[in-house]
Amino acid sequence: MLVLLLLVLLIVLPLFLVHPALHCVTNPIHVQHQYYQPGHFIIGGITSQLTVPKNYQHVLSLVFAVNEINENPKILSNITLGFQIYDSYFSAKMTYQNTLNLISRHKKTVPNYKCGIQKNLIAVIGGLESETSLYMATILTLYKIPQHLSSLYQMAPNEADQYNGIVRLLLYFQWVWVGIFVTADNKGEMFVKTLAPLLFLNEICAAIIERMPNASKFFNVFAMVEKYQVMAISLSKTNVNVFVVNADTSTMKCLQWLLIAASMSDVGPINKVWVLTALFDFSSETFQRDLDIQNFHGALSLAIHSREVDGFHPFLLNLIPHSETDGFISFFWQQAFDCQFLDVETEEESCTGEEKLESLPGALFEMQMTSQSYSIYNAVYAVAHALHALFVSKAHALHLQPFLRNILFNNSVGDTVFFNEKRELEGGFDIINWLTFRNKSFLRVKVGKMDPQAPLGRDFFINEKIIRWHQSFNQVVPLALCNDHCRPGYSRQRKEGELFCCYDCAPCPEGKITNQTDMNDCFHCQEDQYPNKERNQCLPKDENFLSYEEPLGISLALLALALSGTTALVFGIFIKYQDTPIVKANNRNVTYTLLISLFLCFLSSLLFIGRPQLLTCHLRQTAFGIIFSVAVSSVLAKTLTVVLAFMATKPGSKMRKWVGKRFSTALILGCSAIQASICMLWLGTDPPFPDLDMHSLPEEIIVECNEGSANMFYYVLGYMGLLALVSFVVAFFARKLPDTFNEAKFITFSMLVFCSVWLSFVPTYLSSKGKYMVAVEIFSILASSDGILVCIFSPKCYIIVLRPELNKKEQLKVKH
Any keyword Glycoprotein (predicted)? Predict the structure, then answer.
């Protein structure tokens, strides 16, 4: 299948092909426009110049390349190349005719090399459009010339690369709401069928497809203008700012007529961004020389990669408009300069031959080699290098193709020329920004390049800073969207019944963000981050733990130190007054043990403040549990001492043996040992450890001590609660014993406070998070310890310090 983009097809022919079945037949059709130069080997060419003066450069690029090779002693020395060039006249009939002329004897259409002197035709360069290539292939195949895939070489990059380049260009500028402009024929439909799926795969919507009736189909200019005016009105009202144009000759002719029709109506200029295929070039027909090209200002196109060839500009300056061998130049000169070479006076201006090519607008002729002419230049050199390799190897001429297939050389400007396995030129596309001016001149500015063979990341490049857009866009990158972008913090939500490029913007739900425009879905931040209020950015989470540097931590630490200091003060008072009756009466050693354990309880709360470490996590709950068990066991021992002391005073009582230091000591040690065993089992099986809780708080990471086995933690609390409950029950029943100073009353109150604090602790602790959970436990430790200290020791300190007269032995006797 022949490709639909602009091609230069290199058709290689055997040098001495003979087909005996054919007969010598001369053709009376006179070919006016041809250019012949003799040589040992002839390169044929088919160009299309009629009414398009600019295409004359294609002829000149072939001539220039052949002459340059003939003057180069390093290639094909002692062998000259010639050429035979015909015009296709944009006509199938004339393309067939002139293809026959190429394979025939010079000046005769004789498709049989036995008739007369042969031309030694070695290759044909032509087919700048797919139709021309098809016509040439038909004739060459019909006459047994091996015009198959094996003998056709494409002097243009792969067609798929061009479509991919268009898509990448659209994606670069985020143009996702575009139109397609083609002619209403098979060529246009093929372009749409190829491009539309690529657009869809890349989430680009073809919002509108304009199929223009071919201008050549109209027999009446006014009917054509009227039809195009209707389409221009429709085009001007659409919200599509970017159009992709299959920029072959017929499509561009239709587009130009459309723009003319728009200017002739009330529509006015149609200001769009035109994205054009590599077929595009500003080449006005002679009757369109005054056409305003301002509508194309800022257009972007792909172009087969090219560079300026040294010597080509001076070659053009030396052209003489009178030549016996060049049948094109005179016709070109008259078209380009709108004059006539006539001896008689006419209404038209006479050509002097002194006109300057550089004075012509670019739409009629360019002094710089175009990409199409550059391809022809490379094609001639490819044939020459292949032929040179053939003669160096002394191979038979019928075996030229292997040399051409494996050709690899650097041309005069340093570009590497070679073919891939599909016989396509390996190369990329330049990205051109077209700048137009009021005097009908223009500039083509290379603003980027697409090179599929380059490493990933360097295969597509655009210098956006040097691009100039149409004046109507105020030098801002035009938008090509169905609706406005969805800002970060929002996601796209498809509209029912609309193309997928049309969407609403929905705010991200709680806990999710989008950080780019037009994202399809919101997403969660990483575990150590959280969304900001606008939900368009993830912020790092702060660590959450009870620190000595914050007010809550400082307050609890100072309170713990104050209470431990108070406990130490009470202990000092009891040491100082240890021989007084009130100190001695309630088991002095147990009192000391209780005060020391309370002192340590207050200090143990400091283990809960600060960043959790492995050691502090191991000590927090276990130290607190064991120390508190000692304290509560001491309270229980004091309570039982009161009960046993009362029972021992009765005559004949056997309880005297239980009253003494050994009982109290054994009770404290035994109860504490049970709690210590629970804690050791906890540490030995599933101990607490430092942990990070990423999820409980949305904006913070909780740095905590994971309790390991939660059951063991509640076993510790439960056992401590059991001891407190027993102490409370015993103290409650002993509160009315007839002592002058019955300590059981105060123990009852202390255990009531203790149990109340820890019963409220559990639900409060479970409902708290982070540092507040730790603060609840610290407060419970301090409050319950302080309850014991205040309820048991404040009455005694009051008597010892303020009422010493009551601290006498007589006051402790039981009254009947």
Answer: yes
